[in-house]
Amino acid sequence: MEIWPHILRLLEKSGESAYPSECCGFVLGRRETSGTVRGLSVVAVDNAQAPDKRRCRFLMEAEDFLRAEQAAAAQGLELTAVFHSHPDHPAEPSEEDLAHALPFYHYLITAVAQGQAQETTCWRLASDRSGFVREPLTIVDKAPGNGEKSPAARPPRSAPAGHGKPEAS
Q1: Which of 25, 52, 76, 159 could be a cystine partner for 45, CB 3.0 to 4.6 Å?
Q2: Can you give the pLDDT at residue 143?
Q3: pTM for the whole thing?
Q4: Domain annotation for the chain: domains and CATH numbers
């Protein structure tokens, strides 16, 4: 998956703002014929999980998915990824993430330690639903082939790799 630097920063800020709770939302974008998925827009959602469970769980309502799909359609995009944060845990999927994952989305997870975003990783649900497969998350300045440019000017880079296992998310 490819995202612009400002999209990465929006994901990080969302996690930092929600800390010590999990944040959640959607990334809207395009699936190119080459198979590349480009995240171009972020729709943050209020974590609907019970307040006492938000530190290690997130919940998005059906209406949140509907509003994200409508926002995507209005922008000529599609819902390509679900994002959330892991407060004080690594940016790796938990058993809770696995139990609620859908097969057609990318999953972007931002680790937030003591209120500061540390890293963001990208995952896809395995076809047999046995777990997640890590996918590259590339930060780009230009979406090739369509002339769209990011307002931030940094050379392309990959997001850092994660370590360890989260307890729950």
Answers
A1: 25
A2: 47
A3: 0.83
A4: 2-158 (3.40.140.10)
